[in-house]
């Protein structure tokens, strides 16, 4: 009796750890899949921090992010349904065995500000991430050692269907969000947000204190300076960076600053307080931007000029690259320079298009979904395009969930009504066959 109770306790504990791992991997894989470019940027940050960015081809961060999201999501689904026990428990253990010491290094030396394991949906500090991974590693060890105790929800005959569909689903989701935009936007530039309000510090809140560090060169020697000890004009400016001196309240948007390439004027307030419409073409690196839909972009600029709307292209590229873009595409719209990270955060597309009015984001489009002349048939205030796009995260999550769960429910129904019934019938016939001879022997 005592051994039986111990076995029950072990089974409950192992399956509790299994569901904890499943939830973590499903969530982590899902938020990476719906934001593949965000995963790409985070992997690039890792490779840059460790000096390995030149070791891999340019497509590796994007492909690696999509593959990682597929692996994590699939491991979570396999653990949840209790299929592929050996494979899923082994991969869960291997991933946690790699990520736990890595996040300890991040916590100690802080080469990357956050690990990005849950994308922008849930940002943890490096120490919080390490603590989370220690718990998940302990759970993964227990599940791997006691995988025989995992409850199975799908028979072995049907588990291949679940496995195949899971892979197809997560890859389809990732590529859809890559070519359009993330289905769920967890960043401060989501539709409906007011940029100016997002930059405002609440009354009484203490702001963070930053210090500007200037890197200058003289006689082949580089040196860092602050405003207090800035040298004379015999030094040549090389670069600038900002360091945090004192942590305080940091508004969600703190790096939105539009500087005109032509005049050097700061246009931020002028654009964000304009009660009219403004199109913002976002190309974080103009030399890497896709120019396949440049005709549509030029048409929207012509449309803006015709109806007296503002239109700016925002980029972090230097002027020489901007001039090359103009020569290549015939662009006549004005350019503003902005922080590269801010541009990547605004629109997950290069280029992407954003429509704002009085500082509020009304709509965003990827390069593949830019509106054409068949939509822009009148002034924006007379078109649905000029109204704020209705966004419901709950409805989106519901659709995404149904697209995944409905086919799996069909598989479960087939598994329960056909496969398991067939297995029980075969087991019954086998039992009957085994008992037949014994009955005859008894009669003899």
Entry keywords:
single chain, 444 residues, Glutaredoxin, 6-stranded mixed beta sheet, 3-stranded antiparallel beta sheet, 12% strand, disordered C terminus
Strand order, sheet with most strands: 4-7-6-5-8-9
Tell me how many strands there are: 9
Which spans of ≥5 residues are poorly predicted at pLDDT below 50? Answer: 438-444
What share of the residues does DSSP label as strand, in percent? 5-15%
Number of domains: 3
| Radius of gyration, taken over Cα atoms and rounded to an integer in Å | 28 Å
Class of secondary structure makeup? alpha+beta
Summarize the helix and strand pattern as letters: HHHHHHHEEEEHEHEHEHEEH
Shape: globular
Mean pLDDT: 88
User: What share of residues is helical?
Assistant: 40-55%
Describe this structure in words.
The structure is a single chain. With 444 residues, this protein is α+β, with helices and mostly antiparallel strands. The protein folds into three domains: 2-179, no CATH class; 195-199 and 256-390, Glutaredoxin, CATH 3.40.30.10; 201-250, no CATH class. Helices cover 51% and strands 12% of the residues. It is built from twelve helices and nine strands. It has a six-stranded mixed sheet with strand order 4-7-6-5-8-9, with helices on both faces. Strand 1 and strand 2 form a beta hairpin. The longest helix has 51 residues, at 393-443. It is globular and about 85 Å long. Mean pLDDT is 88; it is low at 438-444.
């Amino acid at each position: 009796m005592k051994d039986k109770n111990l076995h029950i306790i072990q089974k409950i504990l192992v399956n509790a750890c299994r569901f904890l791992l499943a939830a973590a991997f499903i969530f982590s894989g899902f938020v990476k899949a719906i934001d593949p470019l965000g995963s790409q940027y985070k992997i690039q940050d890792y490779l840059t921090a460790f000096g390995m960015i030149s070791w891999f081809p340019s497509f590796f961060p994007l492909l690696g992010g999509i593959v990682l999201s597929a692996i994590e999501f699939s491991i979570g689904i396999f653990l949840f349904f209790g299929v592929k026990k050996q494979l899923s428990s082994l991969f869960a253990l291997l991933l946690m065995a790699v990520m736990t010491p890595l996040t300890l290094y991040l916590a100690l030396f802080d080469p990357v500000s956050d690990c990005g394991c849950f994308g922008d949906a849930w940002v943890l500090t490096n120490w919080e991430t390490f603590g989370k991974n220690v718990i998940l590693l302990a759970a993964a060890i227990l599940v791997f050692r006691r995988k025989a105790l995992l409850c199975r929800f799908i028979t072995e005959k049907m588990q291949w269907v679940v496995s195949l569909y899971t892979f197809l689903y997560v890859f389809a989701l990732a590529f859809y969000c890559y070519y359009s935009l993330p289905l769920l936007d967890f960043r401060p530039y989501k539709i409906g947000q007011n940029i100016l309000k997002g930059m405002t510090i609440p009354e009484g809140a203490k702001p963070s204190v930053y210090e500007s560090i200037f890197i200058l060169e003289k006689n082949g020697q580089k040196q860092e300076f602050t405003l207090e000890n800035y040298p004379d004009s015999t030094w040549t400016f090389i670069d600038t960076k900002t360091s945090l001196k004192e942590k305080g309240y940091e508004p969600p948007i703190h790096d939105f600053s539009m500087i005109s390439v032509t005049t050097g004027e700061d246009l931020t307030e002028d654009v964000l307080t304009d009660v009219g419409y403004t199109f913002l073409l976002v190309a974080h690196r103009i030399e890497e931007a896709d120019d396949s839909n440049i005709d549509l972009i030029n048409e929207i600029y012509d449309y803006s000029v015709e109806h007296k709307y503002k239109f700016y292209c925002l980029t972090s590229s230097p002027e020489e690259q901007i001039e090359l873009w103009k020569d290549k595409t015939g662009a006549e719209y004005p350019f503003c320079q902005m922080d590269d990270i801010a541009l990547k955060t605004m629109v997950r597309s290069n280029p992407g298009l954003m429509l704002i009015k009085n500082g509020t984001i009304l709509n965003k489009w990827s390069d593949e979904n830019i509106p054409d002349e068949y939509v822009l048939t009148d002034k924006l205030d007379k078109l649905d395009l000029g109204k704020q796009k209705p966004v419901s995260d709950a409805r989106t999550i519901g659709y995404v969930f149904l697209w995944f769960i409905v086919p799996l429910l069909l598989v479960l129904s087939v598994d329960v009504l056909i496969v398991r019934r067939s297995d029980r019938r075969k087991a019954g016939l086998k039992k009957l066959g085994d008992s037949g001879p014994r009955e005859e022997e008894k009669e003899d």
